[in-house]
Amino acid sequence: VRIARREGIPLYPVSRGRNWGYGSAVPPADGCVAIDLSRMARVLAHDESLGYVTVEPGVTFRALEAHLAARRSRLVAPRVGSTSDGSLVGHALERGLGADGVADRWQRVCALEVVLPTGERIETGFARHGAGLVAPLHRWGIGPSLDGLFSQSNYGIVTRMTLWLDERPALVDSIWLGLDDPAQLAGAVDAIRRLRRAQVLHAPLVISSGTRLLALAIQYPWSLAAGRTPLPRALERELCGGAGIARWSGGTTLAAASRDERRARRALVRAALDGEVASLRLAPAVTVTATDANVNLRAAYWRSLRPIPDEPDPDRDGCGVLFCAPVVPLVGRHVVRAAGIVERTLRRHGFDAIYTISLHDDRHATLIAFIVYDRALAGADAAARRCHDALLDRLAAAGYLPYRKATCARLPEANDAAVRARIKAALDPAGILAPGRYDDGTSRPAGGAAGAAARARRTRRSRR
Ligand SMILES: Cc1cc2nc3c(=O)[nH]c(=O)nc-3n(C[C@H](O)[C@H](O)[C@H](O)COP(=O)(O)OP(=O)(O)OC[C@H]3O[C@@H](n4cnc5c(N)ncnc54)[C@H](O)[C@@H]3O)c2cc1C
Prior knowledge:
Elements: H1 2-7, E1 11-14, E2 33-36, E3 43-47, E4 52-55, H2 61-70, H3 88-93, E5 109-115, E6 121-123, E7 157-164, E8 171-179, H4 182-197, E9 205-209, H5 210-217, H6 233-242, E10 248-256, H7 259-273, E11 279-284, E12 319-324, E13 327-329, H8 332-348, E14 354-359, E15 364-374, H9 380-397, H10 417-427, H11 448-463
Parallel strand pairs: 1-2
Antiparallel strand pairs: 3-4, 4-7, 5-6, 5-7, 8-10, 8-11, 9-10, 9-14, 12-15, 13-15, 14-15
The structure holds flavin-adenine dinucleotide.
C-alpha cells in the first residue's frame, strides 16, 4: 500500500471476490491493481463461551463452518444465500444479509484491523488501546467509533474482524407460508411485523416470488416459451401450478429453549398468520449447512443455455446477474407497491419477475430484484443496465432506496458528499484506494495530487 501511495497506483481489494450480482470482483475504475486477500485465511481466535471468532478476510463461510464442526462447537456458523466460498469479512463490509438467522452481519462485528491508504495500520473499538481482553466483546470502546467508516466505503483495507455468533437453540421449527394475492402479501407482512415487534419471531423471513422458486427448480423453458422472453404469464401460471408453487412463498425459523416455549410460540404464530395466508405449515427444522445455501445459485443459471454445473460459478459460466435491492417500510401496502414496481419494470424490460422480500428487521423490509440473463447474447449486459437504472429510478421516486449498490450503479444524491470528500482526502490523500467505490465522485481522481506528482516522477525516471 505504501508503494502504491508513493507511485500513485490505484488499488482495489477483494476478500474472496464473490460479490456476484453487485459487480463481482471488478473495480469501478480502470487501471486498478487488484489486491486479493484470499490467502489471509486464518481463524485467529474462537471463544465458545463468549460466542465470537476473529478472522482474516480470506476465511470463507465454508471454512468457518468446518472450523466450528471440527471443535464440536455449539455456535451457529454464518451462512449467506449465495456461495459458501464467499468471505465473512467481504460480506460483512458490504453489510450483506445473512441466511443463518443473523440478517445484518455488520451489526454483529467489532474490533477491526484496518490498513489505511496511507500505509498506516489502525484498530477500532477497545482494540485501539491494545485491550485484547475486552476488544472482541464490546462494539464501541471509548470515544468515537470508526467502524462505520469502513463498510461500503473506500477508506481502508480491513485485515481482521471479530464476528459475534449465537448458540444453536435447543429446538428449531421451520415455518412455511403460501400467499395467493397482493392482499394476502400485505396482510402477512403486517402480521409478521407485529410478531417481530412482540419478540415472537427473530429470524429473517424470506418471501420469494413464484418465478424465483421456479428458477430454483428448472431453467428457462425456452422451447415451451417458443423463445419468447419474459416468460408468458399463462405459461408461468401453468408451470408454477404444476410444481405447487404459490404466487409468493415465505420461509423462516422459530427458535425455542424448551417444549413449553415452542408450544407457546407456535400458537402465537398460528394466531397471527392463520387468517392472513393461503397456507401455513410448521415443522421441526432440518439442519442446513453453509454449502446447502449454494442451491440458491441455480437462479443465476435461469436464462443460461448450459446445464447447471455441480460447482456453480456465475462469473465463469457467463451468467448475468444484476441486483437492485431497495429498502421498504415494513408495512404491507409499501411492500406490495414496491413488489409491483419490481415486477412491472423487470417484465417491461424483458426480464422475469425473480425477487425476494427479506423481512429481517422490525421496521423495514429489503426487496432483492434479480435481473438474470445470459451474458453471451449480444447487447444483454447493456439491456440489464438499462433495466437496473429504470428500476432504481422508479423505486427511488417512490422513496425506496437500495441498501447496497452494484459497482456499475449510480448513487442517489447525498447532502454530506462534501464532508465525505474531506474524510476521503484525509484518509487517502493520494486517492489510491478503490476509486469510485461508493463514493459518488467524492474521491479525487485516482492518484490525486500525490499521485500526479508520482506519475510525473515516474515519467521523468523512464525518460532518463
Ligand atoms: C443467487 C445469489 C444469491 C445471493 N445471496 C446473497 C445473500 O443472501 N446475502 C448477501 O449479502 N449477498 C448475497 N449475494 C451477493 C454476494 O454473492 C455475497 O454477498 C458474497 O458473500 C460477496 O462476496 P465475497 O463475500 O466474496 O466478498 P468480496 O467480493 O470479497 O467483497 C465484496 C466487496 O467488498 C469490498 N471488500 C472486500 N473485502 C475487503 C476488505 N478486506 N477491505 C476493504 N474492502 C473490502 C470490495 O470492494 C469487494 O468488491 C448473492 C448473489 C447471488 C448471485
